[in-house]
Amino acid sequence: MTKVVNCRFREAGKVYRFRCDGLSLKIGDKVMVNTNLGEDMAHVIESPYVIPEDKAGDSLIPVLRKASAAEEKIYEEKLVKEADAFVKCQEFIDELGLEMNLCDTVFAFDGKKVVFYFTADNRVDFRELVKALAAAFRVRIELRQIGSRDEAKLVGGIGICGREMCCCTFLNHFAPVTLRMARDQGLALNPGKLNGACGRLMCCLQYEKEAYEESMKRLPKAGKRVRTPMGVGIVSDVELISDIVSVKFSNDETTAIEKFKWDDIAPLNPDVGNGGKCDNCPSRQGDDGRPKAMRQNDFVDHSGKEQ
Length: 307
Fold this sequence. Notes:
Blueprint: E1 2-8, E2 16-19, E3 30-35, E4 38-44, E5 49-51, H1 53-56, E6 65-66, H2 69-96, E7 101-107, E8 113-119, H3 127-137, E9 140-145, H4 148-155, H5 179-184, H6 191-194, H7 209-218, E10 225-228, E11 231-239, E12 244-250, E13 255-261, E14 266-267
Parallel strand pairs: 8-9
Antiparallel strand pairs: 1-2, 1-4, 1-5, 3-4, 3-6, 7-8, 10-11, 10-14, 11-12, 12-13
Helix pairs in contact: 2-3
């Protein structure tokens, strides 16, 4: 077994897993680890736990040590330098008239490199900006373009729900979100309501995706004929989460719509599968083997023929 711990380098940043064998750590501790920028300080966000050795792999980086008081002081100074560098870089961007939006600034722990994160709608020639930054800070300069979702995660804000945005609180990575998810959930395709602060589809559309997909497999689609305690009707609408089916009954004079729980109705000509059994019928069969809430002679034969 291998003892591991989850850490973040920045608030609401991506979570990384490190080995911590032989170390006693708790939430809030500051530790030193190796990164592509050299040694850096990370913050423990979960209590250490153990995983099987075969799941740990050889690529898991170990925690070097707990951060000392001197290293914590260097980290605080680094934060001040990052804030000053952000302001200075923004001044250069304005002077050069570059169409780019500066998002964040990160100094390496040893102070030998600084990375500027930005967004831009079009390609930006920032060669003059790099020269100006190198002259001002006399360290290695790197400009890295990021997407609108990454920008929202760095900047933060309040979502349409009234709570702090998911991306800057607990989301570790961005899952693909498509317009089909909004269609499956019956939402109006209005960009003003579906898009988050980043201008992209809201991440929360992903949260109930599996629940809606499961309901769509079980429940009938609009236009299908079903048998109900009131007779045969046509499905006009389906409430996927509550399992409520709206059924339309029509005759020569009137049209009425009634709502039923899915357990109280049955498909008229179900697709036969699973060895000749309909997935929906067993839960509605009574002791006599006939569907509940049905008249004695009003039931569905699994051969697809009405009886």
